[in-house]
Design the sequence.
């Protein structure tokens, strides 16, 4: 299979300006518009993982045209310089501060022409937008397969592949139900872990379904979230009230409420390191529980009885406090170990 055509982000967003020499050598011209896939990668201090990710993306095979934009949320490593040196076709947006996942991705999508108040007459939006984490590895045919999957199913607004962790296990977040009060109760009380294959108790992670299945879900994970142009236009961009976590669920909820379907494609697989930039961050843990509360308040609180509403708030507070305390204690132990070494 031939290598897919990569267009420089700068040339594509110029929409009709003269192509750069690199694009002329690859045989890409303005006649190739519209772009099939705009890939947005939000980075924060994941230099090596980001380079591996971009290597895998630019090795993509298939008959489609794509462009890549890396948004850097004020990394302290040399991620920005690395991308500019080694991946000249990739766009780079270097932010002066970390504004979070939603805001960072939205910057690139606005650059691509989405949610602009006034569009240039030559603006041609991409057929699909892909949010891709920098700690993922994409097999050569995965992008083409996911494009073909959504092309064959025009009612699908969002799709995601099977996501595998480095240890071979499934990243359970790659296929989910919405965290309704009922679903959240079973999850927070641990019943979902006690009965992982139960349709009732583990509806959130859908572990009763085969990993290689293809089926409708409520949401896929933001590590690989492919969204149809028309769905983005229907509901707008990511909600920037979410700093980190929850924004993918929220986007999926709004898109599904607008009448689009969301599907998990277990026939396509990628690898995800998971939490590469946030596993040791107290701020990230706080953001996780804050996102949980924002999502509940936005989508379910108005329809929840007052007594259950108070129990949910109490549950989020207790679970969040205990989790953050445990993580900080573990981190303290790690620091002591490294000091002694």
Sequence:
């Amino acid at each position: 299979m031939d290598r897919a055509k990569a267009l420089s982000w700068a040339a594509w967003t110029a929409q009709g300006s003269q192509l750069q020499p690199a694009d002329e050598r690859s045989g890409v011209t303005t006649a190739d518009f519209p772009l099939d896939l705009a890939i947005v990668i939000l980075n924060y201090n994941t230099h090596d993982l980001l380079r591996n990710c971009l290597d895998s993306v630019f090795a993509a095979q298939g008959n489609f045209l794509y462009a890549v934009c890396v948004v850097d949320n004020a990394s302290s490593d040399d991620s920005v310089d690395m991308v500019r040196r080694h991946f000249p076709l990739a766009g780079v947006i270097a932010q002066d501060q970390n504004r979070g996942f939603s805001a960072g991705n939205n910057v690139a999508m606005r650059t691509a022409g989405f949610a602009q108040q006034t569009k240039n007459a030559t603006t041609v939006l991409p057929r699909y937008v892909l949010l891709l984490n920098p700690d993922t590895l994409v097999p050569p045919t995965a992008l083409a397969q996911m494009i073909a999957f959504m092309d064959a199913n025009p009612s699908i607004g969002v799709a995601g592949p099977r996501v595998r962790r480095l240890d071979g296990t499934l990243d359970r977040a790659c296929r989910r139900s919405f965290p309704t009060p009922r679903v959240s109760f079973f999850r927070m009380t641990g019943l979902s872990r006690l009965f992982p294959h139960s349709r009732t108790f583990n509806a959130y992670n859908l572990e009763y379904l085969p990993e290689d299945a293809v089926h409708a879900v409520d949401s896929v994970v933001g590590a690989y979230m492919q969204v149809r142009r028309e769905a983005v236009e229907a509901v707008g961009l990511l909600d920037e009230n979410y700093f980190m976590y929850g924004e993918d669920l929220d986007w999926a909820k709004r898109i599904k409420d607008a009448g689009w379907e969301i599907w998990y494609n277990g026939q396509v697989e990628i690898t995800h390191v998971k939490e590469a930039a946030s596993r040791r961050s107290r701020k990230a843990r706080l953001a996780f529980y804050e996102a949980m509360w924002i999502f509940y308040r936005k989508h379910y609180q108005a329809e929840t009885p007052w007594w259950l509403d108070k129990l949910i708030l109490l549950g989020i507070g207790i679970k969040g406090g205990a989790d953050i305390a445990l993580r900080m204690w573990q981190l303290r132990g790690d620091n002591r170990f490294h000091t002694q070494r």
